[in-house]
């Protein structure tokens, strides 16, 4: 289905004269002109079908099958196109978990995600951080059948060689604006966040290391140019963030744009869209309207197949060198939201669905297998403002699992606390991205709904002071409420990911959002005198700085993910072999019926004279949160609903 470029999209790029086939030819160009359309998918996370396995229902906001229709339409609009993927392919949906944990991948097998992508003739791809979640052998087997090359320049084997080819030069023949054939060498280089060695330490320790993204680019881009690359495309599975470069950044795309020799940057990892996206406003070097990073064209194509990234390049030849003379960028969606309802813009591509059909149907059967029952509803609609049953089930199951594992250990007499976060809490996932399980049977799909990541259980041994600071870091999710200003104020900081809002069960505390956050978004202390955590107690007594606790968490957090005090990889005392999700499932099987109850172990301090607001999903109206009073105020953008907290 051919997509027209709307006036709004054109104006977003800052190139009002853009046409369907690309850019108008530069009038002063003396030599040949080639218009090349670069297409990007990113962060697909094993979403092939337009289907939500957690809700066991169709979902028009996701799926490579829908993006594929945009790909074919975009190709029909342009003479010359290339298609790239920017990583995070094989993990992120129950289809991915089914292949990894139930079916398995041996050498020679074809992963459903790869089978679907092979239908689209990708030119090249790179690795995302989630490619490493199941281990290196699984990664190699899963991607072994890909009919497109993979590049990654900053993951190294222990012998110093890169895990994948760092770069590749693709010899292509394009048709110029005069109808003549032009041979152009397209260099492609890939990058992944260097933090994978922390996030997947159990899989990578002693097997692979990483280097800084910009350092890797400075090392390899000159080699790409020496190999004859006319134009260099960076597949950067890393997001866009401002600030001074210090090295080792997780989101380094903006810094990467400064590297000489790179012409185009395809970004991802953050699950946002670019151009557009208010998340990138007011960052020096970022032009949100034109879609540039330090003047270079860039695109970020959402997540789960929600968008197709497009960069239209006008290449001109000066002597023997090809240059980017003009460009436009676009993030093209697979759906619109009309009157607060999702309206699909395209149909699914039949060939892509057929390629993954067997895996899809097997996954449906797998996720519907029963494991127990729940006597109460389990939902996350108010998980960011009050104690919550969906998180409580996780923390209870974790503590139950670890108490059994450590009952004969040297740590058996230490108190066990349990940290959990509300992974599905709306945000960039949309107004339906919440856990909602009604009383009755619990199936495997519900385990993945409650705990969406394939994390494994870890235990850290920390002090009471570190517990307090852990919670202070978590409380950074709240904007500071200004009592003197009064009136209506937004409570939740949209830049703070919900998966970093750890609740620690086993202690009791209040959070005071009128205080400044002690920590910035990167986990650095910026307000040393501020204390949001109040009345921290254990068994009714104040927690002292020198008390010793075991805290159950996951491998991501214990290894340093999110930069939490007391969780940097040095405090771990137990590494479980099991997934957190499996521990939850065992807990439910053991109990047969669960009834997780929010017991008010933490609460928000509600100041007088201020109307603190937050957004949640429409179905929140069917429930009331525990320990706090809220009232619906009305509709909010993008299908959300606005609530206020009543004092």
Which features would summarize this protein structure in a list?
647 residues; alpha/beta; 5'-nucleotidase,  domain 2; 2 domains; six-stranded mixed β-sheet; 15 helices; 22% helix; globular; disordered N terminus; metal ion binding
What does this structure look like?
The protein is an alpha/beta fold. It folds into 2 domains: about 5-20 and about 35-360, Purple Acid Phosphatase, chain A, domain 2; about 370-645, Alpha-Beta Complex (5'-nucleotidase,  domain 2), CATH 3.90.780.10. About 20% of the residues lie in helices and about 30% in strands. It contains 15 helices and 38 strands. Strands 8, 9, 11, 12, 13, 14, 15 and 16 form an 8-stranded mixed β-sheet that branches. A 6-stranded mixed β-sheet has the order 6-5-4-1-17-18. Strand 5, helix 5 and strand 6 (about 150) form a beta-alpha-beta unit. Helix 12 packs across helix 15 (about 580-590). About 50% of the residues are buried. Mean pLDDT is about 95; it is low at about 1-20. This is 2',3'-cyclic-nucleotide 2'-phosphodiesterase/3'-nucleotidase. Keywords: Hydrolase, Metal-binding, Multifunctional enzyme, Nucleotide-binding, Signal.
């Amino acid at each position: 289905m051919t997509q027209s470029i709307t006036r709004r999209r054109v104006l977003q790029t800052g190139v009002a004269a853009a046409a369907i086939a690309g850019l108008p030819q530069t009038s002063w160009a003396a030599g040949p002109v080639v218009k090349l359309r670069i297409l990007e998918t990113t962060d697909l996370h094993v979403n092939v079908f337009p289907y939500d396995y957690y809700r066991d229902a169709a979902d028009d906001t996701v799926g490579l099958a829908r993006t594929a229709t945009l790909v074919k339409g975009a190709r029909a609009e342009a003479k010359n196109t290339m298609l790239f993927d920017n990583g995070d392919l094989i993990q992120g949906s129950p289809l991915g978990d089914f292949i990894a944990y139930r079916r398995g991948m041996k050498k020679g097998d074809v992963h459903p995600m790869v089978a679907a992508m092979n239908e689209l003739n990708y030119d090249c791809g790179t690795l995302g951080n989630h490619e490493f979640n199941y281990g290196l052998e699984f990664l190699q087997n899963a991607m072994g059948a890909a009919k497109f090359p993979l590049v990654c320049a900053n993951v190294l084997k222990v012998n110093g060689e890169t895990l994948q080819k760092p770069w590749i030069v693709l010899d292509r023949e394009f048709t110029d604006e005069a109808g003549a054939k032009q041979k152009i060498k397209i260099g492609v280089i890939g990058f992944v966040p260097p933090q994978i060695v922390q996030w997947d330490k159990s899989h990578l320790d002693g097997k692979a290391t990483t280097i800084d993204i910009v350092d890797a680019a400075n090392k390899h881009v000159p080699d790409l140019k020496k190999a004859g690359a006319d134009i260099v495309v960076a597949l950067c599975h890393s997001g866009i963030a401002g600030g001074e470069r210090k090295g080792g950044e997780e989101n380094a795309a903006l810094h990467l744009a400064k590297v000489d020799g790179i012409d185009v940057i395809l970004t991802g990892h953050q699950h946002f869209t670019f151009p557009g996206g208010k998340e990138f406003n007011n960052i020096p070097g970022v032009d949100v309207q034109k879609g540039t990073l330090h003047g270079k064209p860039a695109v970020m194509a959402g997540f789960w197949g929600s968008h197709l990234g497009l960069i239209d390049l006008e290449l001109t030849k000066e002597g023997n060198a090809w240059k980017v003379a003009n460009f436009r960028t676009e993030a093209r969606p697979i759906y619109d939201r009309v009157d607060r309802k999702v309206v699909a813009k395209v149909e699914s591509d039949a060939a892509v669905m057929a390629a993954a059909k067997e895996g899809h149907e097997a996954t449906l059967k797998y996720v519907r297998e029963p494991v127990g029952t729940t006597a109460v509803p389990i939902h996350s609609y108010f998980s960011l403002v009050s104690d919550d049953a969906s998180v409580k089930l996780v923390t209870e199951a974790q503590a139950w699992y670890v108490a059994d594992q450590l009952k004969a250990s040297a740590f058996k007499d230490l108190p066990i606390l349990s940290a959990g976060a509300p992974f599905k809490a709306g945000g960039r996932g949309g107004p339906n991205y919440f856990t909602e399980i009604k009383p009755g049977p619990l199936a495997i799909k519900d385990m993945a709904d409650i705990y969406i990541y394939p994390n494994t259980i870890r235990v850290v041994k920390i002090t009471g002071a570190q517990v307090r600071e852990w919670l202070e870091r978590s409380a950074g999710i709240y904007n500071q409420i200004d009592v003197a200003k009064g009136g209506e104020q937004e409570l939740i900081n949209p830049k703070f990911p919900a998966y970093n809002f750890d609740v620690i069960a086993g202690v009791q505390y209040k959070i005071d959002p009128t205080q400044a956050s002690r920590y910035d978004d990167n986990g650095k202390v910026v307000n040393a005198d501020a204390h949001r955590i109040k009345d921290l107690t254990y068994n009714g007594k104040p927690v002292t700085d020198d008390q010793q606790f075991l805290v159950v968490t996951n491998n991501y957090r214990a290894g340093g993910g999110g930069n939490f005090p007391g969780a940097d990889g040095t405090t771990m005392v137990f590494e479980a072999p099991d997934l957190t999700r499996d521990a939850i499932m065992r807990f439910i099987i053991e109990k047969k019926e669960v009834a997780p109850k929010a017991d008010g172990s933490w609460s928000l301090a509600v100041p007088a004279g201020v109307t603190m607001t937050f957004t949640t999903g429409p179905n929140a109206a069917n429930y009331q949160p525990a320990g706090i009073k809220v009232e619906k105020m009305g509709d909010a953008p993008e299908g959300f609903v606005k609530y206020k907290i009543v004092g």
